[in-house]
């Protein structure tokens, strides 16, 4: 009975999956050799996640793919295009549209121009074109994608249900990955990284303590212009009394992840999120061990466990059921079940 009553107030559901890192190669390990990586099996886990989403009584309205869809080793194997096609062919069986985030492994395989011209560019699903509910008035002046701007970032937003909005952000907007070496953002990012990390290998956290160990080449951050863009959308959402979930590959709260996985300017983006009553959740990937923290502004920081380090007999995906006053994460396998209550003042 309780379940039936809960269904009555259900607004919609959506699927989440992170760090698939598929490659047609033997199993390997993470850098410190503490965790096995199941490169081939990640495709099987994706397949069974899609199967389960297809079987659900309430079809998820959309799927969020949190980034690192194929592993960087595909670049050395010269199989980047093929591996991407294999994974995209699986996603073609999705019961609903798939929103793609870009992570560090995307940039090991492709440059930004290639990504914009690939199936990993899901911008056409955003900014009022498919799901929005008549509020496309925030579309044109906020669009970040000037095709002539080499420093443009990848980001968009959509509203799958009245009073709910999802914003996809680019956590590698400031990065030494993916940016052209003569671009302003690359030069700024390299300087930022080198001034905080004195190691020759900029992926090494040697000598960096605590949160300073985030200054690694495989991380990145948000430009001022992206934060302004986000600020404008969130202002619209505040005024429209929406509940907003922000999504990025890198986590942004220190208590929701290992410090080696957090965005460089997490403090700046947190200030933006905290300035808006509409933000209820931030969903990230990148840290394959996952994490969770409810911050003092009532924002749930959810870091999803990665498929790549999930043993074949387990799973790493979830379905999030959205109600007016909460979201319930139905995690499978390594992802736990969680109830994310919305702060009453939101
Ligand atoms: N502690 C470390 N010291 C030096 N290089 C590292 C370290 N951890 C990771 N790397 C390197 O950084 C890159 C990204 O690491 P990887 O573990 O593949 O990222 P992800 O966690 O996103 O899968 C790889 O080239 C890896 O060898």
Low-confidence stretches: 129-137
Tell me the name of the CATH class.
Alpha Beta
Largest sheet descriptor:
6 strands, mixed
What structural category do the secondary elements indicate?
alpha/beta
Strand order of the largest sheet: 5-4-1-12-13-14
CATH architecture level-2 label? 4-Layer Sandwich
Please count the helical segments: 9
Note the run of SSEs as H and E: HEEEHEHHEHHEEHHEHEEEEEE
Enzyme class: hydrolase
Pfam families: Metallophos
Subunit structure: Monomer.
Cofactor: Mg(2+)
List keywords for this structure.
alpha/beta; Purple Acid Phosphatase, chain A, domain 2; 6-stranded mixed β-sheet; single chain; Calcineurin-like_PHP; zinc; binds adenosine-5'-diphosphate
Report on this model:
The strands form three sheets. This protein has a six-stranded mixed sheet with strand order 5-4-1-12-13-14. It has a six-stranded mixed sheet with strand order 6-7-8-9-11-10, covered by helices on one side. It has a two-stranded antiparallel sheet with strand order 2-3. The chain has a single domain (2-341), classed as Metallo-dependent phosphatases (Purple Acid Phosphatase, chain A, domain 2), CATH 3.60.21.10. It has 346 residues and is α/β, with parallel strands linked by helices. The protein has nine helices and 14 strands. It is globular, with a radius of gyration of 19 Å. The two termini are 29 Å apart. It is 25% helix and 20% strand. The structure holds adenosine-5'-diphosphate. The site of adenosine-5'-diphosphate has 12 residues, from α5.
């Amino acid at each position: 009975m309780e379940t039936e009553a809960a269904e009555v107030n259900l607004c919609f559901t959506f699927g989440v999956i992170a760090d698939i890192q598929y490659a047609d190669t033997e199993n390997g390990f993470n850098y410190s050799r503490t965790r096995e990586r199941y490169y081939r099996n990640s495709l099987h886990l994706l397949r069974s996640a899609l199967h389960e989403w297809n079987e659900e009584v309430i079809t998820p309205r959309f799927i969020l793919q949190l980034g690192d869809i194929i592993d960087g080793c595909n670049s050395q194997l010269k199989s980047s295009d093929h591996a991407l096609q294999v994974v995209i062919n699986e996603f073609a069986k999705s019961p609903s549209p798939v929103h793609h985030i870009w992570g560090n492994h995307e940039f090991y395989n492709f440059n930004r121009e290639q990504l914009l011209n690939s199936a990993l560019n899901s911008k056409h699903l955003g900014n009022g074109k498919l799901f929005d509910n008549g509020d496309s008035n925030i579309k044109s002046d906020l669009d970040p994608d000037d095709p002539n701007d080499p420093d443009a970032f990848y980001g968009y937003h959509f509203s799958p249900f009245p009073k709910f909005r999802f914003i996809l952000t680019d956590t590698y907007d400031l990065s030494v990955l993916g940016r052209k070496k003569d671009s302003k953002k690359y030069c700024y990012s390299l300087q930022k990284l080198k001034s905080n990390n004195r190691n020759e290998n900029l992926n090494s956290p040697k000598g960096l303590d605590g949160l300073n160990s985030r200054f690694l080449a495989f991380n990145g951050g948000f430009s001022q212009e992206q934060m302004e863009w986000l600020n404008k959308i969130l202002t619209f959402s505040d005024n429209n009394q929406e509940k907003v979930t922000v999504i990025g590959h890198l986590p942004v709260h220190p208590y929701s992840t290992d410090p080696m996985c957090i965005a460089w300017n997490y403090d700046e983006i947190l200030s933006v999120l905290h300035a808006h009553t509409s933000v209820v959740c931030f969903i990230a990937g990148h840290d394959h061990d996952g994490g969770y923290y409810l911050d003092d502004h009532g924002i749930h920081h959810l870091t999803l466990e990665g498929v790549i380090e999930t043993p074949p007999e387990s799973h790493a995906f979830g379905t999030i059921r959205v109600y007016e006053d909460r979201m319930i994460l139905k995690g499978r396998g390594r992802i736990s079940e969680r109830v994310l209550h919305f702060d009453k003042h939101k």
